[in-house]
What we know:
By secondary structure, the protein is of the alpha/beta class. The chain contains ten helices and 30 strands. A hairpin with a 4-residue loop joins strand 15 (238-243) and strand 16 (248-250). Helix 1 (14-25) packs parallel to helix 6 (314-329) and helix 9 runs antiparallel to helix 10. It starts with a strand and ends with a helix. Mean pLDDT is 91; it is low at 432-478.
Amino acid sequence: MGRAFVYVILGGGVAAGYAALEFSKRGVSPGELCIISDEPVAPYERPALSKGYLLPGAPARLPSFHTCVGTHEERLTPKWYKEHGIELVLGTRVKSADVRRKTLLTATGETISYKILIIATGARALRLEEFGVNGSDAENVCYLRNIADANRIVDVMKSCPEGNAVVIGGGYIGMECAASLVINKINVSMVFPEEHCMARLFTPKIASFYEDYYNGKGVKFVKGTVLSSFEFDTDGKVTTVILTDGTRLDANMVVVGIGIRPNTSLFEGQLTLEKGGIKVNGLMQTSNSSVYAVGDVAAFPVKLFGETRRLEHVDSARKSARHAVAAILNPEETGEFDYLPFFYSRIFSLSWQFYGDNTGEVVHYGDLSGTKFGAYWVSKGQLVGSFLEGGSKEEYEAIARATRQKSTVENLAELEEQGLGFALAVSQEQPPETTVSMAGASLVEERPLYAWQAAAGVVVAASVAGFAYWYGRRRKRW
């Protein structure tokens, strides 16, 4: 028993939905495309799970956040897939893959064959047992990776109104879940081993702002230590969280966000792996020419920095999926994926965006007593990373453009003085560009610089520099 398709997408997350839309836009014929997912629902915007889904009033629920509403495009409901002749094979686990024979074997024994495979298997949440701690199966211990996980958090929150929650981990999931728990009037303690929250991205100064803000919301931070064990009641629920430094925290619920691991096991020994994921080229093509990989599972070349990276963010998933489909259907017209790393978060009334790389020397700017501040990262005299809290659409686009251009920085003190004005000035130097809004991000189509534009740039350079200096003088320094 089996079925055959021209194109198969393995995985039903964000990348799968955006790939399906791109296939449709490029004229895939009915019956050619199939999506296989172990989740029982059509692809959806996963960021909603740590935000709107957990809110106490008018929470987000499907079908409201099926892909591709995250970029203000069509909402791909099950009806949409049916109308476009795209087969959804949901609630189905693939237990083995044979890339040489181009077949997938499901847990029910069905063989699904393909001509082209897109791996969009994403990643799974790391569990406590992988760090030597038991207790993940307790009723009030929660993870967050899919809708079933989100429903469990909602149910546990409802079971302990105004109770105590311990969040294990100080990264994305930890910070966003902590905010949602506070909004639900749950008392929150966050535990992580690093010196400050979001340690992979934030500088100590940036982290200090968010930690102070969370403190003001009642969140307690327990840093420099990790979970050792739990104490349980007679029903098997966690009642106490015990840390390695001896600290004991009362708990009605525990939320664990300690990282993820790419789902590569089906292809180990068949495809080349790198950076923990499946290695692809600039067309998102793996070491097997009939297989592509996108999203969290793909390790792809970041042209801007000349190295292979695996990025764990929805923006990368969306754009890499679209690029893979373009490369499959229109290979002669598709160049290499030229992605500017982008991360963002919206928590409470705060909203930040980051572009590029957080390496090199850091220059902070802005006023921590207000709501707008940021940072630049400079390496070898070039801007390689930019962060901004509380920016406008135009300001976020400006820092993205300045980072993509790897703008020259001659003096760090002057950069600090100019602050956001530096990016705005660089933005003004460039000719008008086409931008596409992507859930707060901008995909900037770079255009060639013609001779007359270069001459005009010389004429306006002095006024631009003056603007940057004036803007920077208006801002207080940290």
